[in-house]
Amino acid sequence: MNRAGQGPIAPQAVSRRRFLQLAGAGTLGLVAVGSGAKLLSGTTRAQEESPGTGKRVRQWTAVFDLRYCDGCQSQNKPPQCAQACILGRFVPEPMEWLEVYEHDLAGGGTQFVPTLCMQCQNPPCVNVCPVGATWKTPEGVVLIDQTRCIGCRFCMAACPYERRFFLWGDPPRPPETALVHYSPVHQIGAPKGTVMKCDFCTEILSAGRLPYCSEACPNHAFYFGDLEEDLATNGEKVVKLSKLLSENQAYHLKEDLGTKPRVFYIPGHGEAVGRDPFIKGRLPVEWPWSKEGADTWKRSGW
Amino acid sequence: MEALRLVDGFRQALEERAFAPLTHTGRGFFLLVGALLAVIGWGLFAYYTQFREGLIVTGMRDRISWGLYIAVFVFFIGISMAGTLISAILRIAKAEWRLPITRMAEFVTVVALLVAPLMITLDLGQPLRMPNLFIFGRWQSPLIWDIFGLTTYLVASFIYLYLALIPDLAICRDRLSPKLDAFRRWSYRLLAVEWHGTEKQHHSLARAMGVVMIVIIPIAVSMHTVTSWIFSMTLREPWDSTMFGAYFVAGALYSGVGVLIILMAVIRKALHLEEYLTRDHFMKLGYMLGAFALIVMFFNVSEYLTAGYKLRGESEMHLAQVFVGALAPWYWFYALAGMVLPALLIALPVTRKVWGIIVAAVLANIGMWIERYLIVVGGLRIPLNPYEPANYFPSWVEWSLMAAGFAGFALLIALVLKLVPAVAVWEMVEHREAKHSPELAVQPEAVNDARARDHVPAPRFAMRPVAGPADGGQK
Predict the structure, then answer these.
(1) pLDDT value for A6
(2) Where are the domains of chain B?
(3) Does the pLDDT of residue B448 top 50, yes or no?
(4) Of A292, B79, B233, B412, whose CB count within 10 A is highest?
């Protein structure tokens, strides 16, 4: 299913093992401490929601701890989350499904805000699609079926986070993608004239690993987790998700729009890794397979 | 019998003029059609390029992802208002001066509604998947509302146009047959559905048109409204407006009347209908254009004052780009030359002439085209993330396809004018009959009255051979 894992970067083998170990240890620990009551009731609720299967329905969630995000200034590299997303998911140029924006702080200076598809629970993009080519899965992830999409770009007009991207033409593709079968959860080989976006790497999450963006973060600022199980991990430690969110005043981007995102932010400007908010700028991401001088795909001139 | 003679003279002169283009085709027509076909051919080449390369050949990119195609789509939807307004509203209001222009207004509606969906198709990344709209169509999407509204409006407008055409088609069948080839003779006979102008047929036609003219008005209003909802159902600040529906209806009325005035000016000259499309018609449509200009101005003030007073969220950026920023030249041209100047041209007695009204109509339509462009591009240009606003300029492919769209519009109008008369001959004759000899006319009220019906003589219209002198001595 996941050939991308054998792609240009494969540093995840160690991280996966570590994640599994930590996740197992964390779960055992929680049960041992006796705080399993909530987990059990959660399980029951999930079983009620999906009768017959007896399987838990994950509610995938991402948390960005902005206190740890310095836009990879300290690494002197492009933001590693956005770069790993491009390399791992073979994101066509010039899309940045995950893009690190530099927001101004009210008192001057800036903070870095990695922005990916918010996986809204009231998704404006899904509401407006005329052909049902985009939908919200029971796990709360918004996906696109590029075999049905007619390319009207209504969803792009509707998305208040600008996290949908159009295949305006046939962008250059790395050769290793040629044999991969297309799937809505793994959008390699989507035809031109359709819309793409962050798919939350659900097949990687389901396999118990962290998506590329989270794994690549040198500061472990990214948590991925499951609201239903109330657990999250950044690859370094496993935490109780609700506790992480509540104790750190987690918020959503553009909360007032009522889109109910599944992506949370913990306010900060990289202070935990020693970033000075008045040092601005980050390096641009790269597409190693892009053709030399193929300006058509660049964003310049917009 | 003097009245009869006058009416016959009027009818004969009118029929000669109105039916002449159906049988006589000048060199000018072929030149026009050739030129329009050349533009459409160029557009087909441009579309081939786009189909092969993808929408990368346009000026659109992820940040401004709708552009000229959608703006022109909205513009065509707007001018389709002409038919409903002139034809249905004025018919309900029993405004008799409408008679010579209803047919043209209905042409504009039907043809604009045929061209508008093409502009949407051009904008699709996967045009071959159009059937998905019908296979997988979701009622939750405003785009499906618009498709439903558009097809309903198109069918209703077509029925309305056709109903008012039947008696004229019967005249074509009866009068033109010797001059036509077998296929056209057969077509007119088929389309005239055995119309012989009997009292019963008149009664049925009046009833059918009475139903359609009432039904078509809410259909038209709802279609313009759902077109605006494509924009206002999104979370983008400049589009997030409850008055968008009304704003679009007002804009549609404004540009619809403008297009009608332009078409009237062209047809009057081209088909030599100066006697029937008089200064009076230009004046009356001009007053309507002026009134709608004021309404559109009112909406502009409402829109920008309510947003500008509070400057909530991205409003400040939007007002800045529209009034002083990148879009300011467009906006001020639209505001001053597209709204204020047309209103002044109509308000001032010096310019309240036929030429002044035609200039006002042209300016109004350029203005409304810009307004659609500003709505689409201005709405998408507001960054929703922190970055410098993107810029959009249509590529040669988009300009070519827009030109092809307008050429297609003109071509369809030109072809329709070769098949049916540009004015509603039968209605004008009946009106003249009623004026000169009320006892001859078929009055709908009289038809509805069973006692009166026995006393109404069989209508002479379209059945009697022409008896009067051919001097055309009407008036």
Answers:
(1) 42
(2) 2-443
(3) no
(4) B79
Q: How many helices (H) and strands (E) does chain A have?
A: 8, 11
Rounded to whole angstroms, the Cα distance separating A4 from A185 reads 12
B177 pLDDT tier (thresholds 50, 70, 90) = confident
Q: Which domains does chain A have, with CATH numbers?
A: 3-118+202-291 (3.30.70.20)
Longest distance between any two alpha carbons in chain B, whole Å: 82
Percent of chain A residues topping a pLDDT of 70: 78
When scoring A161, A254, A302 by the number of chain B Cβ atoms within 10 A, the one with the most, hence best to mutate, is A302
| B233 contacts in chain A (CB < 8 Å) | 127-128, 158
Residue B129: which of A104, A127, A150 has the nearest Cβ? A150
Model confidence pLDDT, tens digit, residues A90-141: 999 889 999 999 999 999 999 999 999 999 999 999 999 999 999 999 999 9
Residues 6+ apart with CB under 8 A from B267: B104, B273, B277, B417, B422
For A290, which DSSP code?
S
For residue B373, the SS3 value is helix
ipTM of the complex as predicted: 0.86
In whole angstroms, give the CA distance from residue A65 to residue A63.
6
Exposure string for B109-118, b = 16+ CB within 10 A, e = fewer: bbbbbbbbbb
Q: What mean pLDDT comes out for the span B39-66?
A: 94
Instruction: Report the distance separating Cα B224 and Cα B93, nearest Å.
Output: 22
pLDDT for the residue B445 = 47
Percent of chain A whose pLDDT exceeds 90: 70
What CATH topology corresponds to B2-443? Formate dehydrogenase/DMSO reductase fold (1.20.1630)
Q: CB distance B235–A160 less than 8 Å?
A: yes
Q: Phi, psi (5° rounding) for residue B285?
A: -65, -35
| Mean pLDDT to the nearest integer, A63-73 | 95
Q: Which chain B residues contact residue A302 at CB under 8 A?
A: 61, 63-64, 390-392
**Hey, of A168, A253, A282, which one would you mutate to test binding to chain B, going by the most B CBs within 10 A of its CB?**
A168
